[in-house]
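**Protein of interest**
===
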Amino acid sequence: MGKTMFMVFFGLGMVVAGANAAYALQAGGVEIGDWETGSVVGQSFKELEVDAELYSVEIGNMKAWYPPTTVIDFKVRPGRPVLIKITNNGTTEHGFQLTDTTTQAAPTAVNAKLVLKPGETKYIGIPTSDLFYATMGNTLSYRCHLHPAHVGGKLVMIK
């Protein structure tokens, strides 16, 4: 009886440990940093090409992230991590959130969130595997999470 109970608890422990390890493989792969000090999966941001540049812009009373749609074609680019340059060209502080809206609550979802001061630039590095396996579709959404009325955009991935 004692050995059977031990094996049952040992087996449950292994299942739980295995489930946690599976989440850890993809969760937390997104890195946010500066050009000089940032890195993703062991590669410095300086060693990578910038795949997309996004800017906060103010046109009259409208505040938005520009461009409204960004396309990255993975069929023609090498399998290196994706590097996105985010710049606040506005006069006030802006938030930036990049996420897959269909899997936003999942522990393995891509979810990058940062706050930029006026004139500040940050970089987001994402391993290609996280973009392919932690997203349901081919589209990620970006928006200002501090100001819901600001216009966001879409990052379309051609896989």
